[in-house]
Design brief:
Distance between the termini of chain B: 46 Å
Bound molecules: thiamine diphosphate, iron/sulfur cluster, magnesium ion
Number of strands of chain B: 10
Number of domains of chain A: 2
Structural class of chain B: alpha/beta
Order of helices and strands of chain B: HEHEEEHEHHEHEHEHHEEHH
Strand order of the largest sheet of chain B: 4-1-5-6-8-7-9-10
Helix content of chain A: 25-40%
Number of helices of chain B: 11
Number of strands of chain A: 13
Oligomer: heterodimer
Number of domains of chain B: 1
CATH class of chain B: Alpha Beta
Largest sheet of chain B: 8 strands, mixed
Largest interface: A-B, 53 and 50 residues
CATH topology of the largest domain in chain A: Pyruvate-ferredoxin Oxidoreductase, domain 3
Strand order of the largest sheet of chain A: 2-3-1-4-5-6-7
CATH topology of chain B: Rossmann fold
Shape of chain B: globular
Amino acid sequence: MYEIRFHGRGGQGGRMAAEALALAAFLEGKYAVSFPFFGAERRGAPVRAFTRIDDKKIRIKTQIYEPDYVVVLDETLIETEDVLEGLKPDGMVIINTQKKPEEVKLSRSVRCATIDATTIALETIGRAITNTAILGAISRATGKIGIDAIEKAIIEKFGARLGKEAGEKNAIAARKAYEKTIVGIAKAGKKFEGKKQWLPTVDELPLGGSIGTLQTEAGLVGIGSFSENKTGGWRVFMPVVDEQRCTGCKICWFYCPEGAIKMVDNKAKINYDYCKGCGICENECPFKAIEMKREVRI
Amino acid sequence: MDKYERGERMNLKNLPDDEYFTPGHTACPGCAAPIIVRNMMKILGKDTVIYTPANCLLVFGGTYPYIAWKVPYFHEAFENTGSSISGAARALKKQGKKVTVVGIAGDGGTYDIGIQALSGAAERNEDVIYVCYDNEAYMNTGIQRSGSTPYGAETTTTPAGKKILGKLRHKKDMAEIMRAHDIPYVATASISHIADFLKKVEKMKNIEGFRYFHVLSPCPTGWRYDPSKTVEIARKAVDSGMWTLYEAEYGEITNIYKPKKKIPVEEYIRGQGRFRHMTPEMIEELQRWVDRKWERLYGEKP
Ligand SMILES: Cc1ncc(C[n+]2csc(CCOP(=O)(O)OP(=O)(O)O)c2C)c(N)n1
Ligand code: SF4
Ligand SMILES: [Mg+2]
């Protein structure tokens, strides 16, 4: 049996990828199960999904804690959590990034495959949805599952949901990724501050969690404490303000769902710690002073 | 001395910088609900207490151990927003505190599950504000139809199948039900009309008694459109007559906005995945509903 853990963000389709991978294995005559992690997560928040594949029936129903493969759909996740947690010593990580494996820094040195799935998805499907391209990379990097089965599974699964044409485009994205995947070794050396240990119990929280704020080892709790949660990593496209064109009309400031735009000296200033890249500001700016640009994260 | 005392009217230029709903919340990118609450809170200000039943806003505005609100924030059960805010407002009044008590519920919590407590509180004319952010389905639990879901829209409980395509019934007119309660203030609003939105929030803040504020809240996840289009879709909802902006005092409509040029409902639904399967006959049916509503509210044929 081998086990694959997907790390993505809500709405990126990690669950669909896990399911399509299971279907591909099934089409090759294997037993397979897949399921997502259920939580209160919404689009953009880090989520996980799991696939188990075996030659015989699979009885185990738990989440996957010691995977053989870790798949990372969103590169920003390797900055905020140790995706290698529990990965078997001879395991492998497959990452959607523009970098080569040797340029990727993780908590330890491991076998690593990289693929620029976002670019492939934008070019092939027209949207930054990378869950099918990454399947092609899995086929190439693991050598455990054929690209033909992957393509078939994508056409069946995504075609049923998005229409035949979209299903085929997604299969092409997987094939392209299969051809472009680079396999190598990632660098060690990334430090994650040990996960904050202590969170207050219900009794320790300010009344109703709502009367005041409390500084704890785990950071701020109580009212206004969500500012601890930096949502900037959710972005694929980033808004860039052209100060020459910005007239200080405050329309984007009103419309930013995050409150991530401040008016400074009568110009819009974006707080990239929180901007989720929704693009409303670009769409609403009456003076075309904001443009969404593909963000390259180094 | 604050702006109200100076008698200055709230507009985009003088809307305060203060934020009472912090960034870092976990709403989907492009969600209209945080746009509504952020800007509403800029006017309601720090002396406000918030009650919310289960819904997206509850979860993305507060997930243990974090809270986005910078004012006291309470979660009550789905059924009793109306009664919770009634009790809180009376208790605070008894203590001699001048505080605005606000209940904010989704359409599920307003049209369906919370309607009896809401109706009771309105009929008693409790001194509170009730806000409905209307995303036209139960979104937090994964898009189930509610009494607010429009005709034809696909949800997980009204799927577009082979025989039945989306929801069979039209949207219930909740604001009209509230208007029938003969309360001091009922207002409907849309984020697409900024000045109108701000004027209504400012006005309701200074009214005593029961105030009902109903805002359309486009949801990119449940309505299936590109997140950048949230405001554009809200605007088209108003321009097509799918959503009507008005104010009513003691049951009388005192102010109603009429789109300069009424666009066909087809233009509104285009680009929203939840309506993609609609046949020409279905679109006609939706248009007939809009036209009936138009005639009722404007007293003339569109
Ligand atoms: C009594 C009760 N029934 C069901 C639920 C489950 N539940 C939580 S949120 C939710 C959906 C709320 O829908 P709505 O009020 O429209 O708000 P939205 O999530 O769409 O913003 C449901 C059904 C609950 N929490 N309590
Ligand atoms: S599901 Fe809809 S209403 Fe809920 S947070 Fe996402 S966009 Fe907002
Ligand atoms: Mg709802």
